C-alpha cells in the first residue's frame, strides 16, 4: 500500500461525511422496527448467510455485554485501595481524577490498561461474534479502544479502531507522530506495585492484598532519549496521533466499502450508543438508504431503532447482545 497518506483514502473522514449526510437527508421519524424477536433472529440469520459482505460497527455496548464493566466487582478487585483512599467509584471516573503525583496516576493507569486491553473479556461475546462471521467477507469498524476483537482472533487486517488503543502511548510532543507499544511497560508497572503473575499468566493481587498505589519515578513512561513524557493514544483532542497502522486501517475500510458498493451488504450495528453516532450509526443508515440491495441490523439493549426511510430493510433486536449472539449461533 502506498505509504503517502495523502494519496490513500481516509475512511475515517469518509464515514463522518456519510454520517453528516444522513443527518441532513433523513427527515422522517424513528421506529423500533417490526416483527417479533424470534422473527428478527431468523431474518438476521438469513442475512448473515446470504450477504456478499458484512460490515460490523461496534460500540461500547458490545464490550459491556462481554463483561467489560467499569464498576462493581471487577473494579473493586483491582482498585479497592484507590476506591478507599480517593473515593473513586469506577474505572471511568478514575481516569479523570487529579492524582497528587504522576507516580500514583501511572500506577492507576497501569492497572486500567491491563484489565481493559491485555485481559480477555470475562464473557465469550466477542468469540461468539467471530464464530458467526468466520469465513464471511467481513470488516469491523469500532469506537472501542480495548482491542477485544483482536484478542478474540478477528483478522487484524479487517479491523479499524477509530478512536485509538489502550495498548499504545504517544508523545506529549505534538511534532512526534509515532505511537509506542506499552505492553512491557504495563507488566513492569504492575510488578512494581506488587501484582503477581499466576499460573495462567494473569496478574493478580498477592494473597495478602497488599500492593502499592504508585510506581517508581523511573517507570513514568517517557522517551528514553529525549525524556519527553508519554500519554495514552486515545482520541480526546486534536493532538491524537493517527499513526501508520491507523492510516492503513482507515484506508482498508474505505477500500472495503468501495469494492462492495452495490452488492448485497449487511450493515450490522452492535452496541453503538449516542456518544459518537456520526462514526457508525448514521453512516450505516446512509449507506443502507443509498444501496437498495443492502440491509441494516441493530442489536442493542434499549437503543435498537431505525429511521423510517430504511425500515423495510432493517432488523432491530432490543436485547442483551451476548444473548442474541448465542441465539444466532
Give a structural overview.
The protein is built from twelve helices and 13 strands. The chain has 329 residues and is of the alpha/beta class. It folds into two domains: 186 residues, Rossmann fold (3-Layer(aba) Sandwich), CATH 3.40.50.1220; 87 residues, no CATH class. The strands form four sheets. It has a six-stranded parallel sheet, sandwiched between helices. Strands 6-5-9 form a three-stranded antiparallel sheet. The protein has a two-stranded antiparallel sheet with strand order 1-12. Helix 1 crosses helix 10, helix 1 crosses helix 11 and helix 6 packs across helix 9. The radius of gyration is 21 Å and the shape is globular.
Which features would summarize this protein structure in a list?
329 residues, six-stranded parallel beta sheet, Rossmann fold, 40% helix
CATH topology of the largest domain: Rossmann fold
Radius of gyration from CA coordinates: 21 Å
Average pLDDT, rounded to a whole number, is 95
Largest sheet descriptor: 6 strands, parallel
Q: Which bin fits the share of residues in helices?
A: 25-40%
Strand order of the largest sheet: 4-3-2-10-11-13
- From the N-terminal CA to the C-terminal CA, the straight-line distance is 36 Å
How many individual β-strands?
Answer: 13
Q: What would CATH call the architecture of the largest domain?
A: 3-Layer(aba) Sandwich
Report the sheet-strand fraction.
15-25%
Q: What spatial form do the alpha-carbon principal axes imply? A: globular
Structural class: alpha/beta
Amino acid at each position: 500500500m502506498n505509504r503517502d497518506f495523502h494519496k490513500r483514502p481516509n475512511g475515517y473522514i469518509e464515514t463522518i461525511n456519510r454520517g453528516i449526510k444522513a443527518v441532513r437527508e433523513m427527515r422522517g421519524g424513528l421506529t423500533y422496527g417490526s416483527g417479533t424477536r424470534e422473527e428478527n433472529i431468523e431474518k438476521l440469520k438469513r442475512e448473515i448467510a446470504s450477504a456478499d459482505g458484512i460490515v460490523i460497527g461496534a460500540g461500547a455496548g458490545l464490550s459491556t455485554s462481554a463483561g467489560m464493566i467499569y464498576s462493581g466487582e471487577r473494579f473493586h478487585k483491582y482498585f479497592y485501595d484507590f476506591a478507599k483512599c480517593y473515593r473513586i467509584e469506577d474505572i471511568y471516573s478514575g481516569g479523570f481524577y487529579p492524582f497528587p503525583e504522576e507516580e500514583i496516576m501511572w500506577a492507576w493507569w497501569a492497572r486500567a490498561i491491563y484489565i481493559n486491553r491485555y485481559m480477555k473479556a470475562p464473557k465469550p461475546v466477542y468469540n461468539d461474534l467471530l464464530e458467526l462471521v468466520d469465513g464471511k467477507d467481513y470488516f469491523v469498524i469500532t469506537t472501542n479502544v480495548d482491542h477485544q476483537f483482536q484478542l478474540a482472533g478477528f483478522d487484524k487486517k479487517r479491523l479499524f479502531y477509530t478512536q485509538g488503543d489502550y495498548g499504545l502511548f504517544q508523545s506529549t510532543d505534538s511534532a512526534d507522530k509515532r505511537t509506542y507499544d506499552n505492553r512491557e511497560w504495563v507488566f513492569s508497572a504492575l510488578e512494581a506495585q506488587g501484582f503477581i503473575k499466576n499460573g495462567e499468566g494473569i496478574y493478580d493481587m498477592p494473597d495478602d492484598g497488599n500492593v502499592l498505589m504508585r510506581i517508581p519515578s523511573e517507570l513514568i513512561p517517557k522517551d528514553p532519549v529525549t525524556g519527553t513524557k508519554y500519554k495514552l493514544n486515545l482520541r480526546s483532542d486534536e493532538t491524537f496521533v493517527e499513526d501508520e497502522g491507523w492510516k492503513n486501517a482507515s484506508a482498508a475500510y474505505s477500500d472495503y466499502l468501495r469494492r462492495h458498493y452495490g452488492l448485497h451488504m449487511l450493515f450490522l450495528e452492535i452496541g453503538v450508543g449516542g456518544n459518537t453516532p456520526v462514526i457508525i450509526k448514521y453512516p450505516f443508515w446512509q449507506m443502507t438508504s443509498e444501496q437498495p440491495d443492502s440491509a441494516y441490523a441493530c442489536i442493542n439493549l434499549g437503543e435498537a431503532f431505525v429511521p423510517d426511510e430504511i425500515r423495510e430493510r432493517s432488523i432491530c433486536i432490543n436485547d442483551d447482545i451476548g444473548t442474541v449472539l448465542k441465539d444466532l449461533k
